[in-house]
Amino acid sequence: MASRLIPLLMLLLVPGLALAAGNDKHSLDLTDHWVGFTAIAIFVLAYALVMAEEFTHLRKSKPVILAAGLIWGIVAWYYQSHGLPDATELAVRHNLLEYAELMLFLLVAMTYINAMDERNVFEALRSWLIKKGFGFRQLFWITGTLAFFISPIADNLTTALLMCAVVLAVGGANTKFILLACINIVVAANAGGAFSPFGDITTLMVWQKNIATPQGTVDFFQFFYLFLPAIINWVVPAVIMSFAVPNENPQGGGKSVSMKRGARRIITLFLLTIITAVSFHNFIHMPPVIGMLTGLAYLQFFGYYLKKTYHRELANTNGEANTELEHDGQMGDPIAFDVFNKIARAEWDTLLFFYGVVLCVGGLGFIGYLALASEVMYTEWGTLLGLSAEMSATPANVAVGLLSAVVDNIPVMFAVLTMMPNMSEGQWLLATLTAGVGGSMLSIGSAAGVALMGQARGKYTFFGHLKWAPVIALGYIASILTHLWLNSNLF
């Protein structure tokens, strides 16, 4: 028993290690074997490099992809030597299927976001805000509100980068405003992404898992029970921070930016794609990714239309077709549109990082660490605190959010999903909420925070964010209490 204590403690400190593919009757318990210890060491080292990305400038996908190959290689070799060659292959294929569904889903969403970006949708919004001449306190609330309501449709990272561009454009040398506004944007974007399957990878994972609970299935519309808790999570720290925002007006204005032809129709097609994905999942019980890929075809056909009709319009305007544009339709051209350029511009580092995480921790779970972590977090903690059966998972789910502030929320949420504890709908939504908003407490706790540290380098910093961590923690606690009270019937 003592030999299992060290890896178990590491599981609690590094929640991603709890990820697993489930306990298969043909799997071997390697939790107290050198294979298990070696796999843990490989993953911890890889994740240390991920967390040091800001300083090493090593893309986060590289160490976890290598670690995934090493972990599964060691496990497969051991199983092969013990006469179980097929067990690891089946487990890997299961993990690959889960990854493929999420990767393709995200790829379509990223393609639409890139298409809207190329059509100047976000630049037009940014220039409009700058031209209006709002004061710093007004901009603090406007950028926060937009971050909260855009992130459920786009995603928290893209939304945060857009709003930060506005803040930097109008903030000038006022570093105090930029710091507070960036913190507010990170909190708002993460909170907004927590109540929509499209707002964060973690909520998408929960939705696609199609989890069954005693009350029913956690489907698309159930996530909106988290709307008010998410608002509370953002508003509580925002109100407190707003008193520290300088009561001044920014200097200067911004140039006008117009959206390119077809921008509004692409927005409409993206909304139609979301509707398609939801309908496929809810009404004909197909994976949501099939609906998303169908929606990608909408964009492909519309891109073909944009190309063909533009050159016809150009000929009508100038009297002759511009053959140079016809043969050289580059993405930088104001009118040229190629959907495959938008696919190429997807966040491939993020998508490959996700692959590495899923395969790494899937391997660690296959080794046997799932049962250890699940027993401690979702059974023993609740019993130790004397909680009822319905509320016994609450401490573990609160811890999920706290751990998300230190470790990326993707492995944390995937850990919970692969443990698959027997929880009520309310508890699953609590885990979704905490994983989504817990990362706001530290600037390194979410992709939005890390990205903004790079975008507003020297103005939005780790220690600047840390100073307001207690205030953000108040919002975290308030959102949990709001969910426990408001949605008590779901527990």
Distance between the termini: 34 Å
Largest sheet: 2 strands, antiparallel
Would you tell me the structural class of the helices and strands? mainly alpha
- Helical content (DSSP H or I, runs of 4+): 55-70%
In round numbers, the mean pLDDT is 79
- What count of domains describes the coordinates? 1
Number of helices in the DSSP assignment = 22
**Strand residues, percent:** under 5%
Task: Report strand order across the widest sheet.
Answer: 1-2
Query: What string, H for helix and E for strand, traces the elements in order?
Result: HHHHHHHHHHEEHHHHHHHHHHHH
Gyration radius from CA atoms, angstroms: 24 Å
- Poorly predicted runs are 1-25, 319-335
Choose one word for the global shape: globular
Number of strands: 2
What do you see in this structure?
This protein is mainly alpha-helical. The protein has helices at residues 5-13, 34-51, 53-56, 61-81, 85-118, 121-131, 136-150, 156-171, 175-193, 201-209, 227-242, 263-283, 288-318, 323-327, 339-344, 348-384, 394-404, 409-419, 425-437, 447-455, 462-466, 469-486; strands at residues 212-213, 216-217. It has one domain. Helix 2 (34-51) runs antiparallel to helix 4, helix 5 runs parallel beside helix 13 and helix 7 packs parallel to helix 9 (175-193). Residues 1-25 and 319-335 have low confidence and may be disordered.
Descriptors for this entry?
mainly alpha, globular, 491 residues, two-stranded antiparallel ribbon, 1% strand, disordered N terminus
